[in-house]
């Protein structure tokens, strides 16, 4: 799925119109990257998300479970409701955001079209960012990342709850897997629709080199949204939407299926160990 993320970022970062290097859509971006920079460019910066994925996903679902219990106790609910699912997902997203910001910043800067002459890899991005902008620069874009993850996870977990309520209950593992694919894919798609504007401004904020004494054009999330809408039109807030939804729509389904399967595996292992003790 990673090349789709590279294309998404490239489209989100471009602000001009026209010209031989302008991307006119997802396929045009793929074609120009491969033709002008080589196929391997579609995988530039992949080390950061590879290192990020495990702690990111673990934090997402662990936080969702913990926040779910917290809110059920706080509101005196025995079972989850639609509203609690949205609130729990939003809280899990905020928790997850603190884990991913440095990795996202490195990834964005390596994916940028101009990064070839700036950085030699992930470690070089970290060293140059800290040396030139300070250690706190690794958390540039924290606020916009918080909003991006709050909105996506609220939509994702809220939709999973609702879709599971709507579709017939499964009576076997295969049926449960199908249900999880459907629920997770719908959740991933809705989450993407809701959070793409924040993703656009997050990409621009994190790709901005901080210069002492200068106020960055893209700094805080909502002012940046207003700037993009005013200068480029509302549609610009959905730049990169197609490659993003193609990745996170089905990706949301795969994520839920894998999580459910792994949790079932560990529960069965635990039950077997407890049975052996008896």
From TrEMBL:
Q: State the protein's name.
A: Mitochondrial carrier domain-containing protein
Which Pfam families does this UniProt record tie to the protein? Mito_carr (PF00153)
Its annotated compartments are:
Mitochondrion inner membrane
Please list the residue ranges covered by the Solcar repeats.
1-70, 80-166, 175-265
Family according to the record: Belongs to the mitochondrial carrier (TC 2.A.29) family.
Topology class, membrane:
Multi-pass membrane protein
Annotated Gene Ontology cellular components are: mitochondrial inner membrane
Q: Name one GO biological process term.
A: mitochondrial transport
- What UniProt keywords apply to this chain's record, in alphabetical order? Membrane, Mitochondrion, Mitochondrion inner membrane, Repeat, Transmembrane, Transmembrane helix, Transport
Q: Name one GO molecular function term.
A: dicarboxylic acid transmembrane transporter activity
Family annotation (InterPro entries): MCP, MCP_dom_sf, MCP_transmembrane, Mito_2-oxodicarb_carrier
